[in-house]
Amino acid sequence: EVQLVESGGDLVQPGGSLKLSCAASGFTFSDYAIYWVRQASGKGLEWVGRIRSKTNNYATAYGASVKGRFTVSRDDSKNTAYLQMNSLRTEDTAVYYCTRTLGGGFDSWGQGTLVTVSS
Amino acid sequence: QSALTQPASVSGSPGQSIAISCTGTSSDVGDNNYVSWYQQHPGKAPKLIIYDVSKRPSGVSDRFSGSKSGNTASLTISGLQAEDEADYYCSAYTTTSTWVFGGGTKLTVL
Q1: Which of B105, B84, B94, B79 is nearest to B34 (CA)?
Q2: What value, to the nearest 5°, has the Cα angle with vertex B27 and ends B53 and B93?
Q3: How many Cβ pairs closer than 8 A exist between chain A and B?
């Protein structure tokens, strides 16, 4: 069974940093790109970023609202992906999900981890 | 990249069919067939119900179907059931190798 488990969410002050983790199991992690999607309370889904596989040179891409502040990375030996978030803003408050793709869709999702940016 | 446009809400009675539209541009929905749909119940993670415009993942009811014409994709739910009441989101791959979601549609089963 495919499983993705996010962790690391916390309360952080504006301007601070936080690193989220996404632990995977049940599939060959190194073969898949991993994506991060967030959802503010009562709001819609927002694509945050992704990291491709080693075969695709670990290429990364980011949504406009986080580009330059967030960094996606991975450690295939640990079946884990990461989201490093710097210069956090109140509008970054959200539940953060990690996911992977099946063709052109995100087929497996974690339960999410809550990030709260507030003073 | 602007969010895809979905109606804020739709409703239908049990047994009826409803359709939810998802309008983008030639840089996302109109550019490729990587259009997908998600169902999300309150407090739960999104669930993939349609990918590649019209394909259903294993285990998803055939009451859910997808289509696309030009820059607009559509999700149709036939034989509405109470458990279909949820939020629905579309998503598309873009020409800049990023992904974009729709704003979401709240489905109410009357």
Answers
A1: B94
A2: 45
A3: 70
User: Are A102 and B51 an interchain contact pair (Cβ–Cβ within 8 Å)?
Assistant: yes
Q: Do B98 and A102 touch (CB under 8 A)?
A: no
Q: Which helix (H) or strand (E) holds B35?
A: strand B35-40
Answer for the pair A39, A6: CB distance below 8 angstroms, yes or no: no
∠ CA A6-B41-A40, nearest 5°, is: 55
Cα torsion at A47, A51, A53, A59 (round to 10°)?
A: 120
Place of tokens 């997808």: B66
pLDDT digits (tens, 9 = 90+) for B29-50: 999 999 999 999 999 999 999 9
Q: Which two tokens mark A64? A: 């406009």
Across the interface, whether the CB atoms of A104 and B36 are under 8 A apart is answered yes
CA distance B10 to B8: 7
| pLDDT tens digits along B45-96 | 999 999 999 999 999 999 999 999 999 999 999 999 999 999 999 999 999 9
List beta partners, residue A75. A80
Percentages (nearest 5) of helix, strand, coil residues in chain B: 5, 50, 50
Length of chain A: 119
Angstrom CA distances, A60 to A49, A56, B97, stand at 7, 10, 10
